[in-house]
Amino acid sequence: MKSAIIVFPGTNRERDMAIALEKASGTAPLMVWHKDSEIPDVDLIVVPGGFSYGDYLRAGAMAAHSPVLRSLKEKASKGTPVMGVCNGFQVLTETGLLPGVLMRNAGLKFICRNVGLKVETSQSLFTGGYEDGQVLSIPVAHNDGNYFADNETLDRIEQNGQVAFRYVDEDGAMTEAGNPNGSARNIAGVFNKEKTVLGFMPHPENAIDPAVGGTDGRGLFDGLVRALS
Amino acid sequence: MSITNTAITPEIVAEHGLSEDEYASILKILGREPNMTELGVFSAMYSEHCSYKSSKKWLKTLPTEAPHVIQGPGENAGVIDIGDGEAAIFKIESHNHPSFIEPYQGAATGVGGILRDVFTMGARPIANLNALRFGSPDHPKTRHLVGGVVAGIAGYGNCMGIPTVAGEVNFHPAYNGNILVNAMTVGLAPADRIFYSAAAGAGNPVIYVGAKTGRDGIHGATMSSTEFSEDSEEKRPTVQVGDPFTEKLLLEACLELMATDTIIAIQDMGAAGLTSSAVEMAGKGGLGIEMDLAKVPAREENMKPYELMLSESQERMLIILKPDAASEAEARAIFDKWELDFAVIGTLTTTGHLVLKMGDELVGDIPIAPMVDESPEYDRPWEPTAASAVVDASTVPAPASLTGALKSLIGTPDLCSRRWVWEQYDHLIMGDTAIRPGGDAAMVRVRDSKKGLALTVDCTPRYVKAAPETGGAQAVAETWRNITATGAKPLAITNNMNFGNPQKPQIMGQFVGAINGMRAACIALDYPVVSGNVSLYNETEGAAILPTPVIGGVGVIADIEKRGTVAFKAADEAIVVIGETTGWLGQSIYLREIEGREEGAPPPVDLALEKKNGDFVRGLIETGSVTACHDVSDGGIAIALAEMALGAKGLGADVTPEDGLAAHAWAFGEDQARYVVTAKNAEGILKAAADAGVPAAVIGKTTGNGELKLGTGDSISVSMLRSQFEDWLPDFMAAS
Amino acid sequence: MKATVHVTLKNGVLDPQGKAIEHALGALGFGGVNQVRQGKFLELDLGETDAEKARAQVTDMCEKLLANTVIENYTVEIEG
Questions:
Q1: What's the pLDDT tens digit per position in B141-153?
Q2: C34 Cβ partners below 8 Å, 6+ apart?
Q3: Topology given in CATH for the domain delimited by B564-736
Q4: pTM
Q5: Residue A174 distance to chain C (closest CA, Å)
Q6: Chain A contact for B666, CB < 8 A?
Q7: In contact, A226 and A217? CB cutoff 8 Å
Q8: A195-223 burial, b for 16+ CB within 10 Å, e for fewer?
Q9: Which of chain A's residues have a Cβ under 8 Å away from the Cβ of B159?
Q10: B560 and B434 in contact (C-beta within 8 Å)?
Q11: What CATH fold (topology level) applies to the domain C2-79?
Q12: What is the radius of gyration, based on Cα positions, of chain B?
């Protein structure tokens, strides 16, 4: 699997993502600078976590209009799989590639901790490494992860099976206690309609090593490698 | 000499925090009156912050050398060899006064400043820590300050992508008007690629990089060196505003530049901005420096030389580049890529003078060596702190039940969970956090290796106040113990000396005592000081803070898989206390919180015992003989056991107080040099301890029932303790 | 010429910051504050001298970047 990671000046989880991708695929991803207007042909494009341009206007807003994003949109429209994690998710919603928007956490604070994450479907090229309904423990680390869309949109994406992950509590239940940031219907990640674009808040790239934080994130990368190699 | 002279009145001199003697020395050095810009430069250089004038005499007595020390105090940060060709670079620094005035920005720029100190030496920062001290929870400002400081640290560190992995938070009325915000950064660099600040090569260009200069923070260095008065809150405009995004760019640009072969010297612009960076670089190199201030990238119009020299705008660096055009072009291209300012603002000279121009106009000319050599150094009068009486444990009433007292204690401000704080810090980014916040020391893996660094910050100010020498030694010993409890070998420390007004002999006596204790501990534990920071005049309306010499410790472990952690692992394991328990209640949290008595002599620190017990415990962890390990500190054995149970799910403990001691003194006494460990088999440990001459005793065993039982018929559920432990801080912050 | 832009959350979109401010005002004894909504205020110094063109330009900026129209409304004012 050949992959590319988009790097904005304020991106800061690109190294974590690169390590996770390389461990799973055996191939180091290409790092693509935000000013590059052309993303090379790859099997997967990743927009990683961080604070793209300081996130000063709205998280991901300015990144969504960077030169490299034009190329990303074009490739996405032709079916190249795209995955946005954390700030990457924010960027992908700002571009309109994914529905909804990520607002300030309901608790008004940055939050870094492991959350329960339920895999809504294993039927995608991103989540094939997991079972349907599997509950994972994966860290989140964000200030703006409060997923919002109007009820019509929420109904629609649920009907289309576009919800990829939901936050759940210790018992695997979709409760308010299990929802770290106030996300609508506990939504932690969504696909586009074709399931070729995925965005989510948690950081599986920080859960790939038993010595530091567990291995629940591995399924995502292993699943991608199987689907895209 | 075309330097235009504003009349310098005694009032202006006083406003610049300079004494009459200091001003007389300035007149002698210049052979004339200074102009305002020059006076500003002298004022900054002679401030406590830059000159260490009250503390230098004593700081010099600390041990700073060891075979593994690459660079001790005197540079931007200390550097130690951690093996395999790698170096750890670290320092702690205070941002106390700015954080009190504007907590978010004060704390944020504190983090930004210490990060620059570390990456200016060529290191990629891999961990942040902080030590925070706030006033009483009842004080009307406390909640606002806690919220702002924590958010500021989070806002800066998280955006930079550096994990904040450890710290301490305490509350005490002595900090009501003067909180402490001490931030520490640890970075990694190849041991043969360290960058220093001493300039070299007359004629070489002086380059300014980073953010533009505005009027922020003018007089920060002098402000941070004077006592607070009620009108301090009016000083708000002088607080700098941080821009972590720009700092992230500066970090990446500097590291990229450092990978080239173009840099001769580099120095960040921290307190006293361009003044201290230019003087330090040229001074250390024995050179002069000439700068055209008109070339400094300015954020505001019509900035005066005085303002340009003293601005504390953040996210700026000064670099001496190799003189060839190719080097400059290479460097410029890197800063262009990161969209940062890059300006040649001067050259190094052989004159030994700091020469300042504004275009063609000469606006300042100061001989550097005399300014630095004549920098004031005071031998301030000091009085030793009177010894406090030892509290006889038998005079301290026993609680109705030990678990009842434990339940109260674990929900007090100083012992409750800090989760509310550290969940706001991204402590996982970089993917190397092997021990997360909440343990004894944090541990971060050295990327692409099995090696880990154990990191901690500690101080017990109430001990220091009661007995400065014991308290100073205890602060050092506690970091050493916390690192040891993870299985790592402690290597070196950085210190942040937070004290009151040194012109008061009692305060100076606290300082001297603490230094003496620290020195003894550093020598006994082979644990040198490699960097540090001094913050004096932490007083409001004449009332000083508790003397707070915060110690940041760094240790190394060869294999993170072998690390020791706090949580109980399984039921039916033996619980062993290593070290001697006498039931010392003087200055204990128990005495303060349950009896309302903040008094007595603190527990003595026996450094030889500390070393012997710690080396023994480290050996146990290394050989895999123990399943969990926790040091015993605030709150004693009972709190240590509770924390070990809280870290596990569904486990508890059944222990019996030692015969011959009052049960509450045994449970809550704070004797030093102790650890609680668990083991499948205690016999081997007891035998090894006896052989090593280390006190060790089995006090009970872990259980699978989720209860903590402290002696016959006295037990409490761990889930009850958990809610006490977890709820206090969030409830406090949510209240209004 | 100068343009000013106000960006506000659409009605019905939860505004946790506004709620927090509302709560704090209540705690400070300011009664009778029924609701607080927090927004953004931007000042733009434009080279354009034609007011209508400037308005069109800034509106376009709002649509593309300054506001996220999924959750935010905006108003544009042109001065001088």
A1: 999 999 999 999 9
A2: none
A3: Phosphoribosyl-aminoimidazole Synthetase; Chain A, domain 2 (3.90.650)
A4: 0.95
A5: 20
A6: no
A7: no
A8: bbbbbbbbbbbbbbbebbbbebbbbbbbb
A9: 10, 12, 51, 54-55
A10: yes
A11: Mth169; Chain: A , (3.30.1280)
A12: 26
